[in-house]
Amino acid sequence: MATGLKGKIAIVTGANRGIGRAIAARFSREGASVVLCARDANLLAQAEKEIDHTTALSVDLRELDAAKRVVAFALKTYGQIDILVNNAGATKRGDFLELTDEDWADGFALKFFGAMRLTRAAWPHLKAQAGSVLNISGVGGRMPGPLFTIGGSVNAALLSFTKAMADIGIRDGVQVNAVNPGSVRTERYRRMLEANAKAQGTDVETAERKMIESARTTRVGEPEDIASLVAFVVGPEGRFLQGSLIDMDGGATKVI
Question: Beta strands 132-136 and 245-248: pairing type?
């Protein structure tokens, strides 16, 4: 069992399912203690029960004081913060002309402002520990699409924020990077695939194969793929990475 994160204290948002849960589980296996954050209290309690060395806090990061409450909870529970993974946030897809101001505000409220506020609240403690911030963004920030105007815009803002904070991190001794997952086999991906299969009048296996061929990618990713990369980046072997925007997408990103 790897122990590269032994003794580290991490906060992982959106940790009750998918990529966030996989990251928390990987951190736990590598010796870290993890504060799990998410809105769904039932799924969060299940994750806390099934992943060793974790404590859970049900919180809506769209609320203005939520970030401060998460940091206070982590400090009260463990006394320090070494790693922050900003993973929470899903944005609404759809035709641009049908998306409302509320849809746009909600998209930025969680994924961007939630990450920004939590980074700001945790920063003094990360500075004290020479810690790490890892933002989970997405390929839409670099490869925007017509049905992903909100998500692409939010992800692009998060990537810009990552670069800016990485520069501040050089001054303060805090590592800051971002990972851009492509299509990953999460619950959200499953729902999208089922909808595509229904629209195409085929089964999900065929729909997935067509999607991979159309996007010209190697395969669909697994949450554990992203978790393995994140563990490397914030671990001792990844410390030379700073301000890196890392695409892990099976080749979906076609730009330089």
Answer: unpaired
Q: Find out whether 38 and 61 touch, Cβ atoms under 8 Å.
A: no
What CATH number has the domain bearing residue 68?
A: 3.40.50.720
Residue 1 lies in a domain: no
Query: Residue 3 domain-assigned?
Result: no
pTM reported for the whole predicted model: 0.96
Q: How many CA atoms lie within 13 A of 34 on its CB side?
A: 33
Do both 194 and 180 map to the same domain? no
Tokens coding 181: 């997952």
Does residue 252 fall inside a structural domain?
no
The kind and range of the H/E element at 55 are strand 54-58
What string of pLDDT tens digits covers the 256 residues of the chain? 677 899 999 999 999 999 999 999 999 999 999 999 999 999 999 999 999 999 999 999 999 999 999 999 999 999 999 999 999 998 999 999 999 999 999 999 999 999 999 999 999 999 999 999 999 999 999 998 999 999 999 999 999 999 999 999 999 999 999 999 999 999 989 998 999 999 999 999 999 999 999 999 999 999 999 999 999 999 999 999 999 999 999 999 999 8
Q: What is the 8-class DSSP label of residue 18?
A: H
11: three-class secondary structure by DSSP = strand
Do residues 49 and 128 both lie within one domain?
yes
Query: Pairing mode, if any, of strands 33-38 and 54-58?
Result: parallel
Separation of alpha carbons 256 and 239, rounded Å: 24
200 lies in which domain range?
186-220
C-alpha 52/C-alpha 139 separation (Å) is 31
Query: Into how many domains does the chain fold?
Result: 2
